[in-house]
Structure formats: structure tokens, C-alpha cells
Amino acid sequence: MARRIHTFLALLVVFLMVLATNRIDQHHFEKAQETVNEVFKDRVLVQGYIFSIAQALHEKELMLVQQTYNQSKTTNAAIEDLIADFETTKLTRSEAELLSQFKSDFVALQKLETRSEQPEMVAQQQRQIADLKEYLSKLSEIQITESRNLTTSAQKSLDMSNMIANFEIFFLICIGIALQIIVFYKAKKSVKA
């Protein structure tokens, strides 16, 4: 009876250890999955917003050169919508600061556009657009850096998960060998007796 209790306790300990490592493994997998989702939602989509805003600013430059200002309100509305979408994502501190500066400079550009018929205003608008593009360039660099950091974090979680899985397999093999030895040792002992 004592041997059965010891065997039961040994198997219970093994079961609990495998269960604990499985929970740890699941945590690392979930973290990796969250990171991948964050890379898409907060970095890849934002890169698309930045690209679309840059295209809209390029259209504004063309309007200045061609002196056609009829689509300026539509382009401004599109940029404002993209900025609003950008703001709904998870922003780093530097990203939030750059986006805030971008917004205030964009408002200044819109004010300049109300006086776009004046020749000196065209040069100011061109400088303002160049400044806005510089902000977009910096925001784009942040996306690359943050994506790299998130990918590294996800890879660490996956590596840890893989290591734990290998440990589980090794541990189960050792337990299997130990159980075989116990079973055959008991069988040999009972045959000799």
C-alpha cells in the first residue's frame, strides 16, 4: 500500500510539473501572439497612415505649383481623418510628441492656405509642407524601431516557449525511463522471491 501511495504521489508531482510548464508555455505563446497583433495594428497600419498623409502632402505641393486650390479642403479633410486614425493607436511618448507637433503645424498650414493667392504665402506653405514631411519621416523611423523591438520581444517569448517544450519532452523521457526501471526492477525482484 505504501508503494502505491508513493507511486501515486510521484505521478501527481509529474503531472503538476507538466501542467505548470504547460501554463508557462501558454503564457509565452499568448505574449508572442499579442505582440504580433500589436505590430500589425500599431505599427504596420500606422506606416500606411504615414504613407497616405505623405501622398496627400505631395498633392498639396502639386496644387501649389499648379496654383489649383480647389481640392485643398478635400485633401485637408483626408489628412485630418488619417491623423485621427493615427491617434487611436498605441503611441510611444516621442510618437505622441511628434504627432502633436505635426498637428499644430498642419493647422498653421491650413491658415496659410486661406491666403494662398499672395505670392509670399506660397513659399511659406512650401516650407511648412517640407517641415510636415520631416515629421512624417521621423514618425516612420519610430515605426521601424518599435516594430523591431516588438519582433525581438515576440521572438524571445517563442524561444522561451520552445525551450520549455524541449524541457518537457526531456523530463517526460526521464520519467518514462524511471518508470520502466521501477516496473522491471519490481518484476525481477518478485520473480526472484
UniProtKB/TrEMBL annotation:
Q: Which domain of life is it from?
A: Bacteria
Q: Which UniProt keywords apply?
A: Membrane, Transmembrane, Transmembrane helix
Segments passing through the bilayer: 163-185
**Among its keywords, does the record have Membrane?**
yes
- Statement: the UniProt record of this protein carries the keyword Membrane: yes
The identity of this protein, by name, is Four helix bundle sensory module for signal transduction
What lineage, starting at the top, does this entry show? Bacteria, Pseudomonadati, Bacteroidota, Flavobacteriia, Flavobacteriales
